[in-house]
Amino acid sequence: MFNSLQDSLESAFKSLKGEGKLTEINVATSIKEIRRALVDADVNYKIAKEFTDKVKEEALGKRNVLNAVKPGELMVKIVFDELVALMGGQSVGININATPGIVLIAGLQGSGKTTFTGKLAKFLSTKRNKKVLLVACDVYRPAAITQLSVLAEQVGVSIYKELENKNAVQIAQNGIEYAKANKFDLVIVDTAGRLAIDEEMMNEIANVKEAINPTETLFVVDAMTGQDAVNTAKAFNERINYDGVVLTKLDGDTRGGAALSIKYIVGKPIKFVSMGEKMETLDVFYPDRMAQRILGMGDIVSLVEKAQAEFDEKEAQRLEKKIKKNQFDFNDFLTQLGHIRKMGNLKSLIGMIPGMGKMARDLDIDDRAFDKISAIIYSMTPDERSNPGLLNGNRKKRIANGSGHKIEAVNQFIRQFEQMREMMFKMSNMTGKGGFPGAGKMPKMPGGF
User: Which residues 6+ apart lie within 8 Å of 265 measured at CB?
Assistant: First the structure.
């Protein structure tokens, strides 16, 4: 995400390395590179120029004030502050305060709108404890209602659909009446993807909005389309005056133009960002956290929040007791693996750690390695999972055959698991101030084969 922009900005800051202080000459050189980086990221030139003009003004204004701060670090701080301001300054919540709350979803064809609808349903049902009803109003795309039905079942919410009715306005109204009658807290109305230039389709979404009077209207846009996404967002806003923007496919080859430009051009905040197909990969948009990612500073706050959402405190206490007794087994490992998988793409998670963004790009991390590990563990008997010490040569051969992996792979995984378990045991029971034995020989996570 934003790899090219991140590299270009890093190059711009490096031009100040070794400089004793900011001067008009070195600031001008750095500003020129920053502006080029923004334009290459598909940010509108007018926005890029206005942005860099502000950065230049700030930099020159502080060149003789903060002598203790290195020029490169000062420039990073100034650019960070301006990026945050450009993207809206602070997070803006979703308005669902009604009985029921009604969220209308609009967007272009292929923007990931229906998938986002499923993600939002999961987000609001689990994190806000809402009883959610999805209403299927895409009456044009083949299998659209089927897709939404599958997503509804997947995330554990209800769906209202009318297979024979082709009147989206009528379906939306009927769905809301159904929600009221059945005491749903929230209704999410999924509409057909449309082109901004399609007058008939634009009229339909405008009519749906007028008929149901939603508490929140969200416009879903594919972040990979760059400046085109901004132009489309502007056209939609002029027609239906939505409340916020959702950026999808941020895990793709995103140049950053949409994220950096939409608030400035349209005047509406980005409220959510979505990465990947998993229903858990939806995040509230925080301008400061996004700016940190763009500048390669990581996003430790989001990483901690993801972890807290997945790991139960009682479960953690139970595991701590088992680890202290050196009783951590394959069942425990499998459970923790499931939590990690739910947090999202492993490479993306590593990139959230400060200083690891660029390194994560170069790491050869395949989430399918988790499938290999799971296959090996599921090929064990219940006794073997609970008692790793039972695994002798014959048992390992049987596990290898059952999992479809070579005996060498099974041996490597079990060896790494034992190393990890021993290290966890030592760490949990260490005393004194000298650290724990073998601190310099921390084993790899099991499954690195």
Answer: 44, 47, 230, 233, 234
Tokens, residue 201 = 């389709």
Residue holding tokens 């390395």? 17
Whole-number Å distance between alpha carbons of 297 and 358 = 10
Mean pLDDT for each consecutive 10-residue tract of the chain (449 residues)? 71 70 80 86 84 87 60 80 86 88 89 90 90 91 88 93 90 94 94 75 88 93 75 85 87 65 86 83 84 67 56 73 85 80 61 51 59 89 91 93 91 87 76 38 46
String of DSSP letters for 118-151: HHHHHHHHHTS---EEEEEE--SSTTHHHHHHHH
Note every long-range contact of 329-335, with CB atoms under 8 Å and residues 24 or more positions apart, other chains counting.
329/385, 329/386, 329/387, 329/388, 330/377, 330/380, 330/384, 330/385, 330/386, 330/388, 330/417, 331/385, 331/386, 333/377, 333/417, 333/446, 334/374, 334/377, 334/385
Q: Cα separation of 255 and 111, whole Å?
A: 16
Measure the CA–CA gap between 237 and 245, rounded to whole angstroms: 10
Predicted pLDDT at 358: 54
Q: Which domains does the chain have, with CATH numbers?
A: 3-86 (1.20.120.140), 101-297 (3.40.50.300), 305-441 (1.10.260.30)
Cα 62 to chain centroid distance, Å, stands at 35
The torsion of the CA quartet 180, 186, 192, 196, rounded to 10 degrees, works out to 120
φ and ψ at residue 358, rounded to 5 degrees:
-70, -40
Residues 6+ apart with CB under 8 A from 14: 72
Nearest Cα residue to 290 out of 58, 10, 73, 85: 85
Beta bridge partners of 133: 158, 187
Question: What H or E segment, with its residue span, contains residue 261?
Answer: helix 257-266
